[in-house]
Specification:
alpha/beta; Rossmann fold; 7-stranded mixed sheet; two-stranded parallel ribbon; 9 strands
């Protein structure tokens, strides 16, 4: 996560999802922002996360009107601060947060601190810049990714894990298979959420066995409630990948 993109269209969807899970399943939420500094992890001039078409209102405002209004101040660049998101009711009041920047060295220590900060949460949301790790990441770009072992550590602690993944349209099926395999099958029992926007985002859920049925139902309902596609009203903005 980079503060300069706070409140963008992808944020709207992920906050809507976390609010829905808290309300529907009565599960407390913990968020690891995977915060990064652009000048340390990105090439100069990169601005690929600045998508704010949801602020035109319409279907997005009608979907979650309270969230729409709470995110309105973050369209001003000067307001884009993590602490602001944490304190203005964008997410439930009892949400736990970990906002330390992802470490470039001794990352295991950073991860240990994150696990400690979020240990009481029923659901841990991982919010890296790009998604799960890739073979091509370098020491410079590694903070932009969540490591598979990090997600699995939360799961082994008895927590359900939701991780965001940005993906190119042509690579969705392949990337989905890769991630599920590397997560040791823990993300196979519930569907992946796919949000059709540019770029596409996926949400992988590592569900604790006792919660599989509830999460299947919740994710199905959430997808069905999402805004319709402009050209095909019968299709929803969010769909399930079994």
């Amino acid at each position: 996560m980079q503060e300069r993109y706070l409140g963008d269209s992808h944020d709207f969807v992920k906050y809507a999802l976390l609010r829905f899970l808290r309300r529907t399943l009565d599960m407390t939420i913990g968020v690891n922002w995977y915060l990064t500094e652009p000048d340390k992890v990105d090439k100069s001039g990169n601005n690929d996360g600045e998508k704010r078409h949801h602020m035109s209102g319409g279907e997005w405002k009608a979907w979650v009107p309270d969230l729409f209004e709470r995110l309105r101040p973050f369209q001003a660049i000067s307001n884009r601060r993590i602490k602001g998101i944490e304190t203005v009711g964008v997410l439930p009041e009892d949400t736990a947060f970990y906002r330390e920047h992802v470490a470039t060295t001794n990352r295991h220590i950073w991860h240990h601190h994150a696990r400690t900060a979020l240990k009481e949460a029923d659901v841990v949301f991982l919010d890296p810049d790009n998604g799960f790790e890739v073979d091509s990441m370098s020491p410079r770009t590694a903070p932009k990714y969540a490591l598979y072992d990090e997600a699995l550590d939360y799961y082994r602690n008895g927590q359900t894990v939701v991780g965001i993944q940005f993906v190119r349209q042509a690579n969705i099926a392949l990337r989905t298979q890769q991630i599920r395999r590397r997560l040791e099958g823990k993300a196979d029992s519930v569907p992946i959420l796919r949000c059709r926007m540019a770029p596409t985002i996926l949400f992988f859920t590592l569900a604790q066995p006792s919660l599989t049925t509830q999460l299947n139902g919740a994710l199905t309902t959430f997808a069905a409630s999402s805004p319709p596609m402009a050209r095909h009203q019968a299709d929803r903005r969010i769909e399930l990948i079994p």
